[in-house]
UniProtKB/TrEMBL annotation:
<keyword id="KW-1003">Cell membrane</keyword>
<feature type="transmembrane region" description="Helical">
    <location>
        <begin position="209"/>
        <end position="228"/>
    </location>
</feature>
<protein>
    <recommendedName>
        <fullName>Sulfatase N-terminal domain-containing protein</fullName>
    </recommendedName>
</protein>
<feature type="transmembrane region" description="Helical">
    <location>
        <begin position="93"/>
        <end position="111"/>
    </location>
</feature>
<feature type="binding site">
    <location>
        <position position="384"/>
    </location>
    <ligand>
        <name>Mn(2+)</name>
    </ligand>
</feature>
<feature type="transmembrane region" description="Helical">
    <location>
        <begin position="249"/>
        <end position="268"/>
    </location>
</feature>
<keyword id="KW-1133">Transmembrane helix</keyword>
<feature type="binding site">
    <location>
        <position position="557"/>
    </location>
    <ligand>
        <name>Mn(2+)</name>
    </ligand>
</feature>
<keyword id="KW-0479">Metal-binding</keyword>
<dbReference type="InterPro" id="IPR050448">
    <property type="entry name" value="OpgB/LTA_synthase_biosynth"/>
</dbReference>
<dbReference type="GO" id="GO:0046872">
    <property type="term" value="F:metal ion binding"/>
</dbReference>
<keyword id="KW-0472">Membrane</keyword>
<feature type="transmembrane region" description="Helical">
    <location>
        <begin position="56"/>
        <end position="81"/>
    </location>
</feature>
<feature type="transmembrane region" description="Helical">
    <location>
        <begin position="156"/>
        <end position="178"/>
    </location>
</feature>
<keyword id="KW-0464">Manganese</keyword>
<feature type="transmembrane region" description="Helical">
    <location>
        <begin position="126"/>
        <end position="144"/>
    </location>
</feature>
<feature type="binding site">
    <location>
        <position position="344"/>
    </location>
    <ligand>
        <name>Mn(2+)</name>
    </ligand>
</feature>
């Protein structure tokens, strides 16, 4: 088979309309790949996943319908391209009109007041390149007729190849995303698109991308070569106006039916969340998350009358009529230094104390024996920004995007940084990466903190770094340098670290710890993070400011949030300790509590005279009401008295009876009868926070 017979018509090969050849081949592949992918995802599901025969049948059958609908929707761009396969555009007046339109469009793209300039970034350049190319390529085809057929064939094969290659890339991406998060594409995938440098870098460092891409390219080429042995594109005379009208009408009907079917299959909910995820289509989930990345609470969630909501919220939080509360009378106030270490993805089950048998955290395990430890503390969410939001504002999570990522994120007196600055503290946020990620720099710098990130570390002081940032030792060493300078001012300081090493690709200075087998695993990264925390505290112990400092070690969220239900309790259980020799006595607290309660508890312990608007309360108080808050992007959970209340769009409320199991997990059984009191409590918290 030579290039001429490959790209142009062959007398022995059947001539087929390009729309049908590419569309039919892609759709059949899409359905096959979707079926195989579901089998693979079930085989690589998290350890707690279980599938019954009916669950598997449901996942595969509903999944097939979902893939069929999405596959047809994905052919819409191909149909638009098909419209251009006509000969009418090469008529004299059509050529002049199209060229004038392209010239006008290109001139507009260079105009300083164009809409492309308003989008900023690379949008103007992309528009200029695209319109310039369209003008050049159309002009060549219009004025050199003999190249049209070959040009069209090359364009069709390129389009075909792109369709198939993207299909394989998306499927491979779904597998890796499932392996990391235990779900199909969701708002996390959309959110990460904003930070292409970190995400692409993370992918390149975590996976063997070059060999994978080579395999995908070869597979794509092989499939196209196999398909064109007996079939070729019909390069001319593909449609008359009457035929095109019929095909357009058919396309509209198919798209409408496909959209309806796909929406329906994605609104079905199985009792097992893994089955719900398996039956969905990742590409559709991605688009839906992209289009619905903001949730207006009053439009999507159950509401209480404003007066009832406000009264109930104040009753539960201890706020007065002005929406404030005094955590301490200020008698015997200790304005000591506070260092808050927020550890990336440190699930409680990594620690020996909570059942781990691998000895991953020897330093933290020893430290717990000398600390105030909260054994039943739960993270507010499954993203870093959720943990930072909870610890810096002491309020339940917001619906949709974290307040850190929102435009209106200037929180004023609600911020911990603001409150401590009023008390004379130097307040700082230290992050090993670049703080533009997740909007951390903007948020903390406008809420009472000085931001110190990777850009503030001299190159000679960086011993190791990956795409996420410098290793934990380097940011801790930077912290020691900063704290020495702080101490010289005579003012107390509050500093919050956000670590990065316990994150895929799990790379770090491997010589610092001993690991059997592959050193680039989550467990190995946890072991290194534990080492770095121990190294930091050992060095800090030699500093003159150490005796006047309280250290808090807490996770931002768990390593995984996937489970049989949308909010599996064990996937939000995180460790937390407060350490200050001679000041805070070792103690174990078993009360169910939340990340939002840690700072209010510390303020009370130190008798800091702050008047705050925190929803969190002092865990050590005999009047503390045990409860926790757990949230995903859409589901907002409230856990009290062994009942988990979940608020979801659209005004949906479900409650689960939660029972502990011997393996440390929990069984969540859907309640048939709703506990109205707990529902109202949950609504009062989330409705107030999401005003």
């Amino acid at each position: 088979m030579n290039l001429k017979t490959l790209f142009l018509s062959s007398k022995k090969a059947k001539q087929i309309n390009p729309l049908y050849l590419i569309g039919g081949h892609f759709l059949s592949l899409y359905l096959i790949i979707g079926f195989v992918l579901r089998i693979v995802l079930m085989a690589f599901s998290p350890a707690d996943a279980t599938y019954t025969a009916m669950g598997i049948l449901r996942g595969l059958s509903i999944g097939f319908l979902s893939d069929l609908g999405m596959g047809l929707l994905l052919l819409v761009p191909l149909f638009v391209f098909y419209v251009g396969l006509n000969e009418y555009k090469y008529k004299k007046y059509a050529v002049i009109s199209i060229c004038l339109l392209l010239i006008a469009g290109l001139a507009y793209a260079f105009w300083p007041g164009s809409i492309f300039r308003q989008y900023g970034g690379g949008a103007p350049r992309i528009a200029q390149i695209f319109l310039g190319w369209k003008l050049l390529s159309f002009s060549l085809r219009a004025f050199i007729p003999r190249i049209r057929k070959t040009w069209r064939a090359c364009t069709l094969y390129l389009t075909w190849g792109i369709y198939i290659l993207l299909l394989f890339m998306v499927a491979a991406g779904e597998f890796f995303f499932w392996e990391e998060f235990g779900v199909r594409y969701n708002f996390i995938a959309v959110d990460y698109l904003v930070y292409t440098n970190e995400v692409i870098g993370n992918i390149m460092e975590s996976y063997s991308i070059a060999p994978l891409m080579a395999v995908l390219l070869l597979t794509t080429l092989s499939l196209i070569l196999a398909a064109v042995r007996k079939r070729r594109f019909q390069l001319e005379g593909n449609y008359s106006l009457r035929r095109f009208g019929f095909e357009t009408l058919l396309a509209v009907v198919l798209v409408g039916a496909s959209f309806g079917a796909t929406s329906l299959t994605h609104n079905l909910d199985a009792n097992n969340q893994y089955v719900t995820q398996i039956e969905q289509n990742g590409a559709y989930d991605f688009v839906r998350a992209f289009l619905n990345n903001k949730l207006e609470y009053d439009k999507f969630y159950t509401m209480l009358p404003p007066a009832q909501c406000e009264a109930l919220y104040r009753q539960q939080t201890g706020l007065d009529a002005n929406g404030t509360k005094q955590l301490s009378d200020g008698q015997g106030a200790e304005k000591c230094n506070i260092v808050l270490i927020t550890v990336e993805s440190l699930s409680a089950d990594f620690l020996t104390r909570y059942g781990n048998k691998e000895g991953l955290t020897p330093y933290i395990d020893r430290l717990m024996a000398q600390s105030l430890v909260f054994d039943s503390l739960y993270a507010c969410g499954n993203r870093t920004v959720r943990g930072l939001e909870a610890l810096s504002l002491c309020v339940p999570p917001h619906a949709g995007e974290s307040v850190i990522k929102q435009k209106n994120n200037r929180m004023g007196a609600l911020s911990v940084g603001y409150q401590l600055r009023k008390l004379g503290y130097t307040t700082q946020f230290l992050y090993g990466g670049y703080s533009y990620f997740d909007n951390m720099g903007d948020y903390f710098s406008h809420n009472g903190y000085e931001v110190i990130d990777r850009s503030n570390i001299a190159k000679q002081n960086i011993t190791f770094a990956n795409i996420w940032g410098v290793c934990d030792e380097d940011i801790f060493n930077k912290g020691l340098e900063v704290f020495d300078a702080n101490a010289k001012t005579g003012k107390p300081f509050f500093a919050q670290f956000m670590t990065t090493s316990n994150h895929r690709p799990y790379t770090y200075p491997t010589e610092k710890i001993h690991v059997e087998g592959n050193p680039h695993t989550r467990n190995a990264a946890v072991k290194y993070t534990d080492y770095a925390i121990g190294d930091f505290l050992n060095k800090a112990a030699k500093k003159p400011w150490f005796k006047n400092t309280v250290f808090i070690v807490i996770a931002d969220h768990c390593a995984s949030s996937a489970g049989k239900t949308s909010l599996p309790l064990e996937k939000y259980h995180i460790p937390c300790l407060i350490f200050s020799p001679g000041r805070i006595q070792p103690q174990t607290v078993s009360k169910v509590c939340s990340q939002i309660d840690i700072i209010p508890t510390l303020f009370t312990m130190l008798h800091l005279p702050a008047k705050v608007q925190f929803a969190g309360n002092d865990i050590l108080s005999p009047n503390f009401k045990e409860r926790a808050f757990l949230a995903t992007y859409q589901d907002l959970g409230y856990y009290e008295n062994h009942i988990l209340t979940v608020l979801s769009p659209v005004r949906k409320v479900q409650q689960y009876a939660v029972s502990p199991l011997p393996d440390g997990t929990f069984e969540e059984t859907l309640l048939k009868k709703q506990n109205i009191e707990l529902t109202q409590k949950a609504v009062s918290f989330y409705q107030t926070v999401n005003k």
